[in-house]
Specification:
Layout: H1 9-23, E1 85-86, H2 113-117, H3 120-125, H4 127-134, H5 146-159, H6 165-171, H7 173-176, H8 206-209, E2 212-215, E3 223-225, H9 238-248, E4 260-263, E5 273-277, H10 278-283, H11 304-308, E6 311-313, E7 325-327, H12 336-341, H13 345-356, E8 359-368, E9 383-384, E10 395-404, E11 420-428, E12 434-438, E13 452-453, E14 456-459, E15 476-480, E16 488-496, E17 507-516, H14 520-531, H15 533-546, E18 559-568, H16 571-575, H17 588-599, H18 610-619, H19 626-642, H20 646-659, H21 664-676, H22 680-693, H23 698-710, H24 714-725, H25 732-745, H26 750-760, H27 765-776, H28 778-783, E19 789-791, E20 793-794
Parallel strand pairs: 1-3, 16-19
Antiparallel strand pairs: 2-3, 4-5, 6-7, 8-9, 8-10, 10-16, 11-12, 11-13, 11-17, 12-20, 14-15, 17-18
Helix pairs in contact: 1-23, 1-25, 5-14, 17-18, 18-19, 19-20, 19-21, 20-21, 21-22, 22-23, 23-24, 23-25, 24-25, 25-26
């Protein structure tokens, strides 16, 4: 166990200032079990005294009203390592064989795998909902999906069959409740269920989602099914219909149970690694009215049900239809591969249309490097906003910005280590001949290391990046280039033209953002599993129960999500330097602002690259554009705070607050700037204001808790950590502040709080994995920098 010496303010502060944005924001390792996954949803604010309405994540000895109890994450129950539970109904006769039976408890009758597999009963009254669900990622979450089955069997082979309940708690509940995943054969073979068993092809069924009574914030399947079967309505019986509707109305928070995941000793892993958490990413976003990262445009509040269950036509007469539509049970996301494997061209087109509306791509800026011999991200030389105003020189930097404008969580989301979204950049001369390029080989080469890929890269113990979602081998995250909701990311490309006078100008620079659901390496593994005798047997079962067998050997669709094109070296572009619009009519201020916003993610020695862009954006705005000016001023304040220019930061933030009064991002940036220079007394006030404004934002709660602990206000710090841990129970920063504060107070729970922190903190081995990866691969070393340079390869 890690020993925490008695600490006072500065010890907590040092932890907070060093990296709360990275620690409190969770390590997104995407530790789900592979394959298409279900949608996410909203959770209302929870009491600071509990992790959820579910009694599972228990506190140790509660001290009423004192705020001194240690809030510790919940432990799995009967179906460990999954956190799934079946509720117990007292008074039953105990004849049932399933149920989360505790000491002295009784069994549960009526809920078993075949019950959960039954969707036909629901289809009688809900034919449109059933038809939509039949083709969804939920329906193909289990063994009908060869992508998931390949990952599951690899995990079982390494960790043992019972450990695979970690995956099954979300993907295979119909098998888990009957114990059918527990027997195992060679190579992780699933021997406890026949390939044609309906339970093996159930996925996330009607009776799973609509049978959930409670949900905990832990993840790894942290749902509790109600003990009684769903009551069915009787014809001409309004009371029975009312009971049915009340029973099947799902909670809007249920999806956090499976869209938050982690690895740890419970499932055979040597230490804790946080996994995918689309829910926390959404909950901290502007779409949840909880954004603290920036002053943003005013966007409509949208939870994950709004995005992933939009109205869908109901031509079959579904009884639940309103105005001819039902809430979509296709759960649309980025599942282009699933739609293609099913041969559903209409659904593929719908998914691709959604993707095309998700993000923007902009060749935003260029820098003349002809007098700069450096090759790092920072550049010395004239800058051009937007990029098309730049002249041709012997060496140039071209900055491409990706903005996640429409996705409520990170883009791409879900199983982020297996996502395959990359940038292609091609430079052509006036005749159309390729001069230089980057990323063109990625579409066909599974070993490509040259393209910039929007992915969370995870490595094994030797530092080898894993591309087939080998969850059992995950040992540490080495880079993350996914883009948070409403945020921006920048990639710098270097173009060297030894003799620009010989190049036929103008040059056309074209960028495309390309999307493929999963890596080619993962597809190859799924294809091999599909072509085995075992795989063919499950394919036959899928044809019987799902009317289609998914063939992962078929080519994956590749979608151009966004594209942008400019010309360099064109006199008319340079002469239009005062023009107010650029790409697709987008204002120059906006393009410059997004460029600066993206550079705020650079390491400390390169973050200054944001300043020229932000100053250009502010200069391009009129006095009447108050919201836009507040956006830019807040970014300038954030930049100055990061650089330790505290008074300048406060000046910018004061000006922004006049234009956008009460915005939590301004308060957060002010508090962070003051905390960085140890002015904790002043920092606590705005951080408290932000935490109060955005009670669902765990990072805001963590920052406030750190400030309170740094001031020695330990009782208040404990209460603040409880608010955050009620949102994200395994947040490292919150667990640490709680442990230090309880230790300082001499609380009885100090030891359990310390134990929880020690168990769920970032493992010491994680840095070693990063170092090993960088030493093994120049590409891995390059990608570990949040903003880095890709060299454009000259055509031969």
């Amino acid at each position: 166990m890690t020993a925490l010496r008695p600490m006072r303010a500065r010890s907590i502060a040092a932890f907070g200032v060093a990296g709360v944005a990275g620690v409190a924001g969770l390590i997104a390792l995407s530790a789900g079990c592979g394959g298409p996954e279900p949608q996410a949803s909203e959770i209302p604010p929870t009491s600071s005294a509990r992790l959820s309405a579910n009694a599972e994540p228990a506190m140790s000895a509660a001290v009423a009203g004192a705020g001194l109890a240690a809030v510790v994450p919940g432990e799995p129950g009967r179906f460990a390592p999954a956190h799934t539970r079946l509720a117990i109904e007292p008074g039953r006769d105990g004849t049932g064989s399933v149920g989360d039976v505790e000491p002295g408890g009784e069994g549960l009758v009526g809920i078993d795998g075949l019950h959960l597999a039954d969707s036909e009963t629901c289809a009688d009254c809900h034919p449109d909902v059933a038809a939509q669900w039949q083709g969804s990622a939920h329906a193909f979450a289990s063994l009908s999906n060869p992508i998931y089955r390949a990952s599951l069997e690899g995990f079982r082979a390494a960790e043992g069959a019972p450990a695979s309940r970690f995956c099954g708690g979300c993907h295979d509940l119909a098998l888990v409740v009957d114990g059918a995943l527990d027997p195992g054969g060679p190579g992780g073979a699933i021997t406890g269920v026949a390939a044609d068993d309906a339970r093996a092809h159930t996925g996330v069924s009607c009776r799973v989602c609509h049978g959930i009574g409670e949900v905990a914030r832990d993840g790894n399947g942290s749902i509790t099914l109600r003990p009684e079967p769903i009551p069915l309505p009787r014809e001409h019986d309004q009371a029975s219909l009312t009971r049915h509707r009340e029973a099947v109305r799902p909670r809007r928070d249920i999806c956090v149970g499976c869209h938050r995941s982690f690895l740890g000793p419970d499932n055979g892993h040597p230490y804790h690694l946080a996994g995918m958490d689309d829910f926390a990413d959404w909950e901290a976003s502007a779409f949840a009215l909880s954004g603290t990262g920036r002053v943003d445009e005013i966007v409509p509040e949208r939870d994950c049900v709004d995005c992933h269950m939009p109205p869908d036509p109901a031509p079959l007469g579904d009884i639940a239809a309103t105005d001819g539509a039902v809430a979509s049970h296709r759960f649309p996301g980025g599942h282009t591969w699933l739609a293609a494997m099913r041969g559903d061209d209409a659904e593929l087109a719908r998914v691709q249309t959604r993707l095309e509306a998700a993000v923007t791509l902009d060749i935003a800026a260029a820098v003349d490097l002809s007098q700069d011999g450096g090759v790092g991200p920072s550049a010395r030389g004239p800058r051009y906003f937007p990029a098309e105003r730049a002249p041709l020189t012997t060496a140039m930097a071209i900055d491409v910005v990706v903005r996640n404008r429409g996705v409520g969580h990170r883009f791409p989301g879900g199983v982020r280590d297996a996502q395959d979204v990359w940038i292609e950049l091609v430079v052509r001369d006036a005749r159309g001949a390729v001069v230089a390029a980057s990323g063109l080989a990625h579409e066909r080469d599974p070993g490509d290391q040259e393209a910039h890929v929007l992915r969370t890269s995870v490595a094994d113990a030797a530092g080898q990046v894993l591309l087939a979602h080998e969850t059992e081998e995950f040992r540490g995250q080495v880079s993350d280039h996914t883009v948070a909701a409403r945020d921006a990311a920048v990639v710098r490309y270097r173009l060297d033209l030894p003799a620009p006078a010989r190049v036929r100008a103008p040059l056309t620079v074209a960028a495309r953002l390309r999307h493929r659901s999963r890596t080619l390496t993962m597809q190859r593994a799924a294809c091999e599993a599909f072509e085995s005798a075992h795989g063919r047997a499950f394919a036959a079962g899928s044809r019987d129960h799902r009317e289609v067998a998914l063939d992962p050997c078929r080519p994956q669709p590749v979608t151009t999500v966004a594209a942008h094109q400019i010309q360099l070296g064109r006199e008319s572009s340079r002469s239009g330097a005062e023009a107010g619009s650029g790409q697709g009519g987008r204002p120059v201020w906006e393009r410059s602002y997004e460029h600066g916003l993206a550079w705020l993610h650079a390491t400390q020695e390169h973050v200054h690259e944001a300043r020229p862009s932000l100053e250009a954006a502010l200069a391009a705005l009129g006095d009447a554009q108050e919201r836009e000016r507040a956006m830019v001023m807040t970014a300038l304040g954030t930049l100055a705070g990061r650089q330790g220019r505290t008074e300048e930061a406060l000046m910018w933030l004061d000006r922004a607050a006049v234009l956008a009064p009460g915005h939590p991002a301004i308060a957060t940036s002010r508090g962070a700037a003051l905390a960085r220079v140890w002015r904790w007394q002043e920092a606590e006030v705005p951080l408290a204001q932000a935490a109060e404004k955005v009670p669902r934002n765990a990072r805001a709660q963590a920052l406030w808790a750190i400030a309170l602990g740094s001031l020695g206000r330990d009782r208040e710090a404990v209460v603040a950590t409880h608010a955050g841990l009620g949102l994200v129970p395994r947040d490292e920063a919150l667990l640490r502040v709680q442990a230090v504060a309880l230790q300082a107070l001499g609380a009885d729970d100090a030891a359990s709080a310390l134990s929880a922190y020690d168990r769920f903190r970032m493992p010491d081995q994680a840095l070693g994995v990063r170092f090993a990866c960088a030493a093994e691969s120049p590409a891995c070393a390059r990608e570990q920098a949040p903003v880095h340079v890709h060299q454009l390869v000259l055509a031969r």
